[in-house]
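testing teh design pipeline on a random one, pls ignore if ur not involved
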């Protein structure tokens, strides 16, 4: 399956693509240093510790390289691909070292055939800085002892690197059976991407999986995805205008784009949004809007992870000024202390004299103000007035006048 991101092609129009050569250059020293370790088993655990230190150092290098490229202008989607490519190389290197040095092959049989695949978001060829990685270890039938040893060693090694790893070891028949029983498993397997091992085994799985999707029809899958979406919106916000949105799971976020893509792919078999447009499911304008939305959300998500230092998906008030500035959203300046003081004074005045309807209208304006002013990051210096232009609105505050006026693009004003 071709690498794509939420249905986008490997390199969207105008996008700065990641450098495969760059990730390969970062990987080569790891391969060389592993080869320099003494041969012959694990040496009582000492060799594993030395290998773990090597992998940890080189994993830090690809993570630092991705962050530097992103901060220098690489798009969020390109950075996500770059990080996934770097992880691909390290997973492949770990498997090669495990199967040649830790558990060297003996008289192997066809039952020991093993294919490695990435699933979930990692299967789509992308990783956010603090996202987990999902791996599928595919066997032709029941897992033989050596395969079990290899898989167990790799998983514990990856966990000891500090990675969050979701995993499954399944035979071909188990993959098909579990996909039929669970729409979430079916979705994850639909994103499966070959990482290494027995290519013929993976290709057989893909052919059987696609055929099973066709035979079982799309109605049940679509209904399951709609139910998942409803439940997710209930948990993360069933409103596209939340002041602290979840960019991954909230309404209008990345997961909604992915859900639409999963349904379209299930119906058409296409792996890109352009393919969905070619089948008439969406128009060309919608495909371009989809690409723009995904690119923007991925950039926001990367900023969120880096600023928070963890897998943070919610764009909270305290993070919005920082990320807004990093993405160039701040066009003007505003003095937070001035605005806070004015709003507080007005609120006290309303508490004393306003009617219920006036209070409701004031609260509506206050929500608008907070939503739009939050991108400001730099306090004003001298002068009684401050101006912020953001999201098509201009805010003018004047401490002496005691007013906050919001001008929108149609020249209407909201005064507080």
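output:
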């Amino acid at each position: 399956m071709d690498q794509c991101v939420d249905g986008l092609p490997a390199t969207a129009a105008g996008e700065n693509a990641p450098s495969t050569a760059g990730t390969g250059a970062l990987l080569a020293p790891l391969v060389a240093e592993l080869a320099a370790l003494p041969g012959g088993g694990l040496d009582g655990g000492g060799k594993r510790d030395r290998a773990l230190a090597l992998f940890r150092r080189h994993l830090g290098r690809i993570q630092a390289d991705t962050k530097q490229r992103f901060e220098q202008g690489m798009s969020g989607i390109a950075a996500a691909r770059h990080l996934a490519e770097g992880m691909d190389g390290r997973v492949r290197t770990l498997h090669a070292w495990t199967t040649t040095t830790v558990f060297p092959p003996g008289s192997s049989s066809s039952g020991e055939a093993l294919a490695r695949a990435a699933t979930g978001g990692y299967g789509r060829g992308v990783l956010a800085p603090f996202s987990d990685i999902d791996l599928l270890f595919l066997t032709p039938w029941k897992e033989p002892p050596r395969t079990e040893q290899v898989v167990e060693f790799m998983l514990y090694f990856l966990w000891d690197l500090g990675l969050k790893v979701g995993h499954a070891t399944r035979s071909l028949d188990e993959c098909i059976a579990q996909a039929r029983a669970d729409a979430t498993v079916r979705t994850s397997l639909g994103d499966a991407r070959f990482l290494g091992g027995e290519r013929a085994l993976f290709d057989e799985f893909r052919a059987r999986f696609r055929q099973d999707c066709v035979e079982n029809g799309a109605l049940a899958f679509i209904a399951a995805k709609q139910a998942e979406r409803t439940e997710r919106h209930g948990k993360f916000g069933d409103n596209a205008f939340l002041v602290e949105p979840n960019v991954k799971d909230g309404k209008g976020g990345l997961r909604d784009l992915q859900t639409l893509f999963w349904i379209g792919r299930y119906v058409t078999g296409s792996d890109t949004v352009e393919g969905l447009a070619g089948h008439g499911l969406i128009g060309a304008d919608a495909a371009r809007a989809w690409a723009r939305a995904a690119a923007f959300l991925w950039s926001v998500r990367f900023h969120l992870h880096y600023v928070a230092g963890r897998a943070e998906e919610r764009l909270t008030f305290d993070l919005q000024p920082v990320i807004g500035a990093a993405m160039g959203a701040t066009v003007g300046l505003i003095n937070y202390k001035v605005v806070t003081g004015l709003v507080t004074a007005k609120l006290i005045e309303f508490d004393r004299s306003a009617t219920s309807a006036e209070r409701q209208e004031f609260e509506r304006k206050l929500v608008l103000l907070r939503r739009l002013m939050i991108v400001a990051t730099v306090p004003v210096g001298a002068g009684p007035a401050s101006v912020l232009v953001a999201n098509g609105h201009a805010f003018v505050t004047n401490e002496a006048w005691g007013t906050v006026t919001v001008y929108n693009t149609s020249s209407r004003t909201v005064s507080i």
